[in-house]
Amino acid sequence: MRQPGRHFLQIPGPSSVPDRILKAIGQQTIDHRGPDFADVGKAALDGMKTIFKTNQHVFIFPSSGTGAWEAALVNTLSPGDKVLMFETGHFASMWSSMARKIGFTPEVIEGDWRGGAEPDRIEARLRQDTHHEIKAVCVVHNETSTGSVSPIEEIRKAIDAAGHPALLMVDSISGLASIDFRFDEWGVDVCISGSQKGLMLPPGLSFNAVSEKALERAKSVTMPRSYWDWHDMVGPNSNGYFPYTPSTNLLYGLNEAIEMLHEEGLDQVFARHARHGASTRAAVRAWGLEVLCARQGDESGVLTAVLVPTDYSADNFRATTLKHYNISLGNGLSKVADKVFRIGHLGDFNDLMLMATLSGVEMGLEKAGIPHQSGGAQAALDHLKQSTTCPSDTQNS
Ligand SMILES: *Cc1c(COP(=O)(O)O)cnc(C)c1O
Fold this sequence. Notes:
Blueprint: E1 8-10, H1 19-25, H2 37-52, E2 57-61, H3 65-76, E3 82-86, H4 90-101, E4 105-109, H5 119-128, E5 134-140, E6 142-143, E7 148-149, H6 152-161, E8 167-171, H7 183-186, E9 190-194, E10 206-210, H8 212-220, H9 230-237, H10 248-264, H11 266-287, E11 290-291, E12 303-307, H12 314-325, E13 327-331, E14 340-344, H13 351-368, H14 376-386, H15 391-395
Parallel strand pairs: 1-13, 3-4, 3-5, 5-8, 8-9
Antiparallel strand pairs: 2-10, 6-7, 9-10, 11-12, 12-14, 13-14
Helix pairs in contact: 1-10, 2-10, 5-6, 11-13, 11-14, 12-13, 13-14
The chain binds pyridoxal-5'-phosphate.
């Protein structure tokens, strides 16, 4: 049946793609080895350095984010190498199971899925590792299954405080371009990202930002690799080209996205996401429901995971809101399946879109018979009215 009006894609990635980017992607595909391509490739590779905040290396793969996870591991480790991972949620668990599948030895610090990675626990484990068997520490920056953020700068300090040479690898697939990230300043060795979250693109591009130290390490490790090999990228990339066919049209879109992010200003983008996260949490509190992220200060500006009361089905609630209000909300993954729903407030998003989203959630709670108090959308509206980081306030005055 036809549903009039626009669909609200409020899952925490893919985020909805702005018209400017759709238009850029719609341009004719060109010869990826021809003279005109160099400008496209260079703009993308150089532009992404400004998003990662690095003067080191950025590699772009035609793959989903999962591919860039694999690239990070196979370029920096030898078969059997031990990596220390922190279980912040579903995505951290998936990354460690990938590491095991392809022949590494992940050691997982268990977490309760209610906050970010804890630097002191990482430091304590590294201090015990006197023979330096751990080759890398892997953490998820924004854990998309729980809505928690890990303190990357503090984790680097913890590694240094332990005097440990392990590389720091960070999955910022859903954090980059939505919450503050500083590759060089924070001393990250490999950052993994993807196109379909904060970067506002369709799925299909992934990224590795790579430190000199990690690129050097890649020369001596013995893990077999081919498609993901950083070293095959370096030569062609220096002129804006790629060793195999890149996703030309998504690169058009990426260059548009980078321009849009800088037009708004990265700091504004981060403030906007933080503000929408706070407004959403105000709504959840007013409904009398619980935010999954329980550690104060770790809450994400990208998404909010909300626990439904025991004995109620989050998936049934999501199906009801989709059917009646034409809005897609994120589902609970693995351990929290059917127990939480996730509200995405990332990417090309503004106050009115947030209000429509939260109104849809509130009407859905009512329709699905989930016990709650009304007034959540009003609480978010009050928060929006009182907080003043709206970019247009400063730009147009
Ligand atoms: C989306 C996401 C992934 C998976 O990326 P794909 O593009 O689906 O392969 C991994 N980690 C995090 C934190 C994510 O948000």
